[in-house]
């Protein structure tokens, strides 16, 4: 049976370091969250950020604004937050309404306040392996691999999903020379022909495609490590709502050597690392 790569000890280590760093900073870092509309999943994630931020010494401020906000109004709000010296980090909760241009907004947030790590400058530094604020979910995958001492150097890692949020930046991190890295990386997506041909070659398979329980037993090789990035809300046969990953955990549990659970895996680590990015942003300010 696969070893479960649980988030709890990883998160504990991250928050211990976070508290230590805040003590060194000698003030409470400030995170400004902008939440548009009333998406239940987004509100749940934001409430966790507020709860954990408050618990560990980060002041989290929430601006929940109407779904009807237009592009100009949102751009003005971002500029206001950029200019506010009391704000260390800005997080714009995704997804945005269709009428808003996400790329423009990502480019507008100051790179040094961009705790999501989506600004083109931060992504460019990632490509060049220079220090920057990194996207949190890719960081979470790296943190799990590192904590559980899963070797990546020379391994074939297959990533399902090519998003700018997870797949692409994660591929770059795993290709990098820092550990864990130095892997041979294949990125698959919705247009990949004969997907299982690639997934069955993976020493480490990372699923980040947003399709509930998509990865089945026939798609992995024996003793592969499976990292499940997906978080999908489904209704089971009993009519109960529950969260599942992109991997059919029951189908692969006896084939894989290790598996990150959903919930209690990548998502929990992502939340902790976003708060860690806030602290990092606060330190960047002190170096100016």
Note down, in words, how this protein is organized.
This protein has 288 residues and is α/β, with parallel strands linked by helices. The protein folds into two domains: 27-119, Leucine Dehydrogenase, chain A, domain 1 (Rossmann fold); 136-266, Rossmann fold (3-Layer(aba) Sandwich). The chain is 40% helix and 17% strand. The chain contains ten helices and eleven strands. The protein has helices at residues 8-25, 40-56, 71-83, 102-108, 120-127, 136-147, 167-175, 195-199, 249-252, 266-286, and strands spanning 3-4, 30-36, 59-65, 89-92, 156-160, 184-188, 204-207, 225-228, 232-235, 241-244, 258-259. The strands form three sheets. A six-stranded parallel beta sheet has the order 1-11-8-7-5-6. Strand 9 (232-235) and strand 10 (241-244) form a beta hairpin. Helix 6 (136-147) crosses helix 7. The longest helix has 21 residues, at 266-286. The protein is globular, with a radius of gyration of 19 Å.
Throw out a few tags for this protein.
six-stranded parallel β-sheet; 288 residues; Rossmann fold; alpha/beta; 40% helix; 17% strand; 2 domains; three-stranded parallel β-sheet
């Amino acid at each position: 049976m696969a070893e479960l790569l649980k988030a709890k000890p990883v998160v504990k280590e991250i928050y211990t370091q976070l508290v230590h760093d805040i003590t060194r900073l000698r003030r409470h870092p400030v995170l400004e969250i902008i939440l548009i509309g009333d998406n239940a999943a987004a509100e749940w994630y934001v409430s966790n950020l507020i709860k954990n931020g408050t618990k560990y010494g980060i002041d989290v401020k929430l601006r929940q604004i109407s779904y009807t906000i237009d592009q100009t109004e949102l751009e003005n709000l971002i500029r206001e937050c950029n200019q506010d010296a009391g704000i260390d980090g800005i997080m714009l909760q995704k997804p945005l309404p269709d009428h808003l241009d996400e790329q423009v907004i990502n480019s507008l947030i100051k790179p040094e306040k961009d705790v999501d790590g989506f600004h083109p400058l931060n992504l460019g530094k990632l490509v060049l392996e220079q220090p920057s604020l990194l996207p949190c979910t890719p960081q979470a995958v790296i943190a799990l691999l590192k904590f559980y001492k899963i070797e990546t150097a020379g391994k074939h890692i297959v990533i399902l999903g090519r998003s700018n949020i997870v797949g692409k930046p994660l591929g770059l991190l795993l290709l990098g020379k820092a550990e864990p890295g130095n892997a041979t990386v294949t990125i698959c997506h919705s247009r990949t022909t004969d997907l299982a041909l690639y997934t069955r070659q993976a020493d480490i398979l990372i699923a980040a495609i947003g399709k509930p329980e998509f990865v089945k037993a026939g798609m992995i090789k024996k003793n592969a490590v499976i990292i499940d990035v997906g978080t999908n809300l489904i209704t089971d046969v009993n009519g109960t709502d529950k969260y599942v990953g992109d991997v059919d955990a029951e189908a692969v549990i006896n084939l894989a050597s290790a598996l990150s659970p959903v919930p209690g895996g990548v998502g929990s680590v992502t939340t902790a690392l976003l708060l860690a990015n806030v602290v990092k942003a606060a330190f960047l300010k002190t170096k100016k």
